[in-house]
């Protein structure tokens, strides 16, 4: 299959591109390298350095993808709060232009990197299923939810099949420390350089941590199989507090560096955890890497072992 991966020079996108190449697909990556790195690109992919806000018409015309895995995004929640207009330009307008060109260019399937935590907002149920009410509390969550709504429209109007993968907090090798789950990368970097880490507030806020290469596998399953169009949670269903996360990393690295506690971040979501049961049923996806193993691989990548 010919697959265009947007954001393929980034953390998760490069794992997706790698998985696709290994499975024998023909892959092109489009990335403006605003956060991604050329070194992340696997051998054998075609590369276009371009901003998706332009809509990628020329690339789709030239490469003729059968499917698109869309990962390029403004993905910093705090930046979305500071610059909601920029967030919408990339995550809404850029995505809509891309979808228009996909529909015109005969693309058959669109796999979208959406978000669980940011779309559900403060949860009523733990873990949240896909039926949980959607009340994003950041412009980033709003723009991702809007992307999902456009997918529904393009399916209804143009027959473009789609799978929206609602990720929990993704961590792992190649992660940029500025993302939604940047905390793992930040702690690993600090442990590697022997610096003290700061935990915001009491550190009892929880997240659902899912391993990047497992998330890449969900993309492959969604691309390769006949999956009913819709949204699927890609998480573990397990909650881990920041205190426990740091403890695991500290133990894993063998470095005796106790953390400091700083002031809490106003407006920060307290708990987040999503239920992956539907993805298991419909996609055949399950998280395969337990937290300890994933953190060990991440520590190794950051040179903290
Ligand atoms: P990342 O920053 O490593 O990857 C995003 C890539 O997109 C980068 O390589 C960046 O250079 C590229 N990019 C950004 N804006 C672009 C633009 N306008 N045109 C072309 N390329 C552009 O981030 P990631 O963690 O790999 O995230 C990938 C996707 O997964 C994003 O859509 C993000 O919203 C989503 N997601 C991530 C997490 C997480 O925990 N990391 C959680 C939920 C959803």
Describe the protein's topology.
Elements: E1 2-6, H1 11-22, E2 26-31, E3 46-49, H2 57-63, E4 67-70, H3 77-82, H4 84-104, E5 109-115, H5 117-120, H6 139-158, E6 161-167, E7 169-171, H7 182-193, E8 198-200, E9 206-207, E10 209-211, H8 212-224, E11 230-234, E12 240-241, H9 242-253, E13 260-262, H10 277-282, H11 291-301
Parallel strand pairs: 1-2, 1-4, 2-3, 4-5, 5-6, 6-11, 7-10, 8-13
Antiparallel strand pairs: 9-12
Helix pairs in contact: 1-8, 4-6, 7-9, 9-11
The protein binds nicotinamide-adenine-dinucleotide.
The site of nicotinamide-adenine-dinucleotide (NAD) has 30 residues, from helix 1, helix 4, strand 5 and strand 7.
Task: Please report the number of helical segments.
Answer: 11
Order of strands across the main sheet: 3-2-1-4-5-6-11
Task: Tell me the span between the first and last alpha carbons.
Answer: 39 Å
Helix-strand pattern, N to C?
EHEEHEHHEHHEEHEEEHEEHEHH
Portion in strands: 15-25%
CATH topology of the domain at 2-171 and 209-235: Rossmann fold
Characterize the main sheet: 7 strands, parallel
CATH class of the domain at 2-171 and 209-235, named Alpha Beta
Q: Identify the CATH architecture of the domain at 2-171 and 209-235.
A: 3-Layer(aba) Sandwich
**Weakly predicted, low-confidence segments:** none
């Amino acid at each position: 299959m010919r697959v265009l991966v947007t954001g393929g020079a980034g953390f998760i996108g490069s794992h997706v591109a790698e998985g696709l190449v290994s499975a024998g697909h023909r892959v092109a990556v489009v990335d403006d390298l605003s956060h991604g790195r050329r070194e992340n690109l696997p051998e054998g992919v075609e590369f276009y350095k371009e901003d998706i806000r332009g809509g990628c018409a020329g690339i789709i015309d030239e490469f003729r993808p059968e499917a698109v895995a869309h990962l390029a995004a403004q993905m910093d929640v705090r930046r979305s709060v500071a610059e909601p207009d920029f967030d919408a330009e990339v995550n809404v307008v850029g995505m809509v232009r891309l979808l228009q060109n996909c529909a015109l260019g005969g693309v058959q399937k669109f796999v979208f990197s959406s978000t669980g935590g940011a779309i559900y907002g403060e949860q009523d149920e733990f873990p949240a299923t896909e039926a949980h009410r959607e009340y994003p509390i950041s412009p980033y969550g709003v723009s991702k939810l809007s992307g999902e709504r456009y997918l529904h429209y393009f399916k209804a109007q143009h027959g473009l099949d789609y799978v929206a993968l609602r990720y929990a907090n993704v961590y792992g090798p190649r992660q940029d420390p500025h993302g939604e789950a940047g905390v793992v990368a930040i702690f690993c970097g600090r442990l590697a350089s022997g610096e003290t880490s700061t935990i915001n507030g009491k550190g009892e806020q929880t997240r659902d941590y899912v391993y990047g290469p497992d998330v890449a596998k969900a993309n492959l399953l969604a691309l390769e199989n006949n999956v009913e169009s819709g949204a699927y949670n890609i998480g573990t269903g397990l909650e881990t507090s920041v205190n426990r996360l740091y403890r695991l990393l500290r133990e894993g690295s063998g470095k005796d560096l106790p953390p400091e506690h700083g002031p809490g971040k106003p407006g920060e979501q307290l708990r987040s955890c999503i239920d992956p049961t539907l993805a298991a049923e419909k996609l055949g996806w399950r998280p395969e890497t337990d937290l300890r193993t994933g953190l060990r691989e991440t520590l190794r990548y950051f040179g903290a072992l």
